[in-house]
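Predict both folds.
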Amino acid sequence: MTTSKGKNVRAGSPASVSSGPHLQKWLRDPKNAAAYIEAALTEGDSGDLLHALRNVAEARGGIAQIAEKTGLNRETLYRTLSKRGNPQLSSLAAILSATGLRLSVTPAGR
């Protein structure tokens, strides 16, 4: 997958970050979803990360189901996952968990 800034996520994935049906299908695989989120994190833009997380949420159950699993209402979840969203760590962890993902930290490669 190629992110909005041209970085490759993984061979064999859709060619763009559009939220079309190919991307949605690709993101249903947890490994693909994790690679997609990691690529967005690598870019360092919080808006890109939140947009990517929204795409994953939509692909892995939809916003309504993720809202139910996290205890957040849909409107809050939509705002949280917008380019201008500013989620708390607890919300971010809950959203990731509801999509079958989790946060982790690894040493930065040099």
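Second protein follows, with its predicted structure tokens after the sequence.
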Amino acid sequence: MSVTLMIPDVPDELARRLRARAAGNRRTLQAELLDIVETAVRAESRRTLQDLVTQGQRLGLSGSPAESAGLIRDARDRDDRR
């Protein structure tokens, strides 16, 4: 059994961006929205704090808060130069 979902009062700019995204993926707006919802629900699985710490360590993000701030500043500075 399927159900029909409605989202009233979608801002024009958001609707425009969703239509553009759908076109870029060669989908109808409805197919694009269904894909977004399915992806969000799949990704919703609960993570423990330990899962997040382990993932951060794997990505090399196990430094101190000062190191994190430095990484953020570096990324911001790179973006400013573009």
